[in-house]
């Protein structure tokens, strides 16, 4: 991100991301959505992360639906903070979603998130306003996707974004048409609203890996040589080449 105009809003650039970021640790094909760990995703240029937590005995554990992914929110934030310490001109955007109701816990999901974020407060952007890149540098920008306990800011409301997320499609053509239409809206409208497009879905009994083999090449071909604001694009199984193509759309020449 160091090559970008720091006066730009983060809403007015293209950001590569992952859907179900942490779903790389299970051997179940229909649960796995990534082949790369969080650390490797950071290294290849992923900057949006879809982190889904469930509160169990007052600890925020990472889940995909009912499947535990052998990690926790604290470890995610530690890895991200360590990365930002080494790369202070970068910023990360993190959706925090409540995946399942709390179990054996005597605090709310919101309080658990607040308490955890407090340990990383020097790196957290918890305001509800969308920052410019200069403000965002070195920060983890929280998109909260859960019920708040009070009016104290905890980040940008996830539901305030413009989102394309047909997570269950009838066909590849239906999903790809929705993705393409949303990307075209993102580039044609000038505003300070974050656009988020999920280039992922479920179709019949196909696995996320199989679906990614169809959708990711379409996305690469669509973006190749284009420039402009495409917003956040979240993907299953992205590779370095596709991530680089998304980043390159920020070039103005």
Helix segment count? 7
The fourth-level CATH homologous superfamily is: Phosphatidylinositol (PI) phosphodiesterase
First and last CA, distance: 16 Å
Structural class: alpha/beta
Mean pLDDT figure: 96
Order of helices and strands: EHEEEHEHEHEEEHEHEH
Unreliable residue runs: none
Radius of gyration: 17 Å
Shape descriptor: globular
**CATH topology assignment:** TIM Barrel
- CATH class term: Alpha Beta
Overall tally of structural domains: 1
Helix content range = 25-40%
User: What share of residues are in beta strands?
Assistant: 15-25%
Strand tally is 11
CATH architecture: Alpha-Beta Barrel
Q: What summary fits the major beta sheet? A: 11 strands, mixed
Describe the protein.
The protein has helices at 38-44, 73-86, 109-118, 133-136, 172-188, 208-223, 240-248, and strands at residues 14-18, 48-56, 59-64, 67-72, 92-103, 124-125, 140-145, 156-157, 162-164, 195-199, 231-235. It is α/β, with parallel strands linked by helices and 253 residues long. The protein has one domain (10-248): Alpha-Beta Barrel (TIM Barrel). α6 (208-223) runs parallel beside α7 (240-248). The longest helix has 17 residues, at 172-188. It is globular. The two termini are 16 Å apart.
């Amino acid at each position: 991100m160091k090559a970008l105009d720091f006066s730009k809003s983060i809403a007015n650039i293209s950001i590569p991301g992952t859907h179900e970021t942490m779903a790389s640790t299970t051997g179940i094909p229909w649960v796995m959505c990534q082949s790369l760990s969080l650390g490797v995703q950071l290294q290849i240029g992923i900057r949006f992360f879809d982190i889904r937590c469930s509160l169990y005995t007052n600890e925020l554990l990472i889940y995909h639906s009912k499947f535990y992914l052998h990690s926790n929110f604290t470890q995610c934030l530690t890895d991200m903070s360590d990365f930002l310490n080494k790369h202070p001109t970068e910023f990360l955007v993190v959706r925090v979603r409540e995946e399942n109701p709390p179990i054996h816990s005597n605090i709310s999901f919101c309080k658990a998130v607040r308490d955890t974020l407090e340990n990383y407060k020097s790196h957290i952007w918890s305001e509800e306003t969308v920052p410019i890149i200069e403000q965002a540098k070195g920060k983890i920008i929280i998109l909260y996707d859960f019920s708040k306990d009070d009016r104290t800011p905890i980040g940008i409301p996830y539901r305030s974004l413009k989102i394309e997320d047909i997570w269950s499609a009838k066909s590849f053509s239906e999903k790809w048409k929705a993705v393409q239409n949303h990307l075209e809206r993102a580039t044609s409208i000038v505003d300070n609203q974050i656009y988020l497009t999920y280039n992922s879905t479920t179709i019949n009994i196909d696995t996320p890996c199989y679906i990614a083999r169809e959708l990711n090449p379409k996305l690469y071909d669509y973006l190749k040589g284009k420039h402009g604001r495409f917003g956040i694009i979240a993907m299953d199984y992205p590779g370095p080449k596709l991530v680089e193509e998304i980043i390159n759309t920020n070039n103005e020449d």
